[in-house]
């Protein structure tokens, strides 16, 4: 049975979208099961909403079999419910951010007064502010500042020269990263991909080899998100090779090396290679121990705490809820960690509890994530699908209230 949003429209589950995509190809459930490598019973359970279709690894397997984009199964981007005024504000700027991204590489044609007031110190302050909104998962505030900021950074790159131009492109790279995360969190994956391309291009203009490699961390993520594991792996391997050739021992290089091993671990987990995932996670732990502190180089949080967080996330990706919960029980997040990162951690913990059948604990973790980052949690495909499944099989107070805020009831 479909359930309904606060606007009265039918809300599809991932399983219902999967069934519709299968029917569009005129496949039987058995044909889909064979093509995707899952049992007929599993396909039936997913389509009927009795089993949560939230794990990216499984979504990607079905998407590949059906030759569709994963978001055709997960349903993004989502529209915030009418009562979520902050969410409505967050999505209001998507079109303006997209326009700013499309302007990339085109002549900025600045007015005389725009060129005259270019101030790199002020732009640096504004980029720092935007990154603060990003780390706080303040999507509405991000959307409010990004369009004008990106325009001013594009102008600065056009009217400056030499070292100032390279600095301007470094700031523009960071601005594009903020835009990418803003769009990704709101489920606008195609626009986020466009932003990632801009990150890679502008990073090259900085002349900083570490900055260029950091941009490829996001580039690898684009291929990972659509199940192109070989391509993602090639980008990661090339980056690790280049880092080795640079023979850099600065903390920034060590941090970047560790971050790439974490990305490799995730890529392996999504490809159902648990052994490789654990191997790369172990190498990331070595880098974190060498670093000895939590850092935020290139806006890539890395260090002992982040490695421990990934130690929870990776078994969740592999469907190993008990391993994830055992590791989470030993982890205490420092309060200084960003709301964005802490909320994602609690999302993973909630999914791990759900896999274990611990539904009350799963709900509690999701509510913690929502308190830290309301819009990012409500827009998270895994949360929406898991909560929807919980509601379909066992409705109760706080769970239904969360479902209403998510728009899955």
Protein model, in words:
The chain is mostly helical and 409 residues long. Among the domains are: 75 residues, lambda repressor-like DNA-binding domains (434 Repressor (Amino-terminal Domain)), CATH 1.10.260; 89 residues. It is built from 23 helices and 2 strands. The chain has a two-stranded antiparallel ribbon. Helix 16 runs antiparallel to helix 17. Pfam families: HTH_31 (PF13560). Keywords: TPR repeat. It comes from Streptomyces mexicanus. InterPro entries: Cro/C1-type_HTH, Lambda_DNA-bd_dom_sf, TPR-like_helical_dom_sf, TPR_rpt.
Defining key terms:
434 Repressor (Amino-terminal Domain), Cro/C1-type_HTH, 409 residues, mainly alpha, two-stranded antiparallel sheet, TPR-like_helical_dom_sf, Lambda_DNA-bd_dom_sf, TPR repeat, DNA binding, 2 strands
What letter string, H or E per element, gives the SSE order? EEHHHHHHHHHHHHHHHHHHHHHHH
Distance N terminus to C terminus?
A: 12 Å
| Helix amount | over 70%
SS field, number of helical segments: 23
State the gist of this model:
By secondary structure, the chain is mostly helical. It has 23 helices and two strands.
Topology:
Blueprint: E1 3-4, E2 10-11, H1 14-24, H2 29-36, H3 40-47, H4 56-66, H5 71-74, H6 85-92, H7 94-102, H8 112-116, H9 120-135, H10 139-159, H11 162-185, H12 189-204, H13 209-225, H14 229-246, H15 251-270, H16 274-291, H17 304-317, H18 321-329, H19 339-355, H20 359-372, H21 374-378, H22 381-393, H23 397-406
Antiparallel strand pairs: 1-2
